Amino acid sequence: MVASRFLLDPLKDFVASVQDFFLLTGRAIRNIFRSPHYLDDIFMQMDVIGVGSLMIAGITGFFGGAVMALQMSKALSTYGQVSKTGAIVSLTLVREFGPVLTGLMVAGRNASGIASELGSMKVTEQIDAMRALGTDPIQKLVTPRLLATCIMLPLLTIIADFIGMCGGFIVAELFLGLPAKLYWTSVWQILVWPTDVIQGLLKPLVFAVAISMVGCYFGLRTTGGTQGVGRSTTQAVVAATILIFILDLMLTKIFVSQAAS
Is there a domain that residue 4 lies in? Predict the structure, then answer.
């Protein structure tokens, strides 16, 4: 009896945590359609999350595209299809590489930032003071971060995809000797409109919800002073990273099944 209780307690804690996470997410999404909207907070978070992540997203996209071009050109040369390098780079970036890498970079930078910021407010009782003054912390703190991430992450993904294609072009031009017109023609022709565009934008939108809500969830449940803030920050990054890979697998499976049918 004691052994079974010892085994079930962690499972109950996990189920309760998942339930609390979805309840928080539901409240944050519901607050999008309720007043007040705190537009100043939304624009501030868009600047912090989007503009602040622009450099790291661009660098990641550039080197991701360059490495992809180098690796794929070696494989394609076996079949005499080096001219298809641009098509492979484009397809991989838009469907998979761009959304996932950008999501991981934003998760590492912003999920931790959100968790540490809200965690610091929680341990210093600022959130309790906010409730005492009649302000909904979910409306004031969580919903603006959710909206800002959902707006900025797809835009960052588009920028990362384009810069990645430019990185692949530089490799193709300098090391493979491919003409610019041939490269860019294959880049655009391989994409299936609007399927690839929808897939390339839907993934970062779903990742944005996961990243922002994981950061807010761990930030709001922080306890234990400064050590608790550090613990919540680490947990937020790990959980957001794992969620991105799980959601990517699920979404890819859905799109592949639809394409096959």
Answer: no
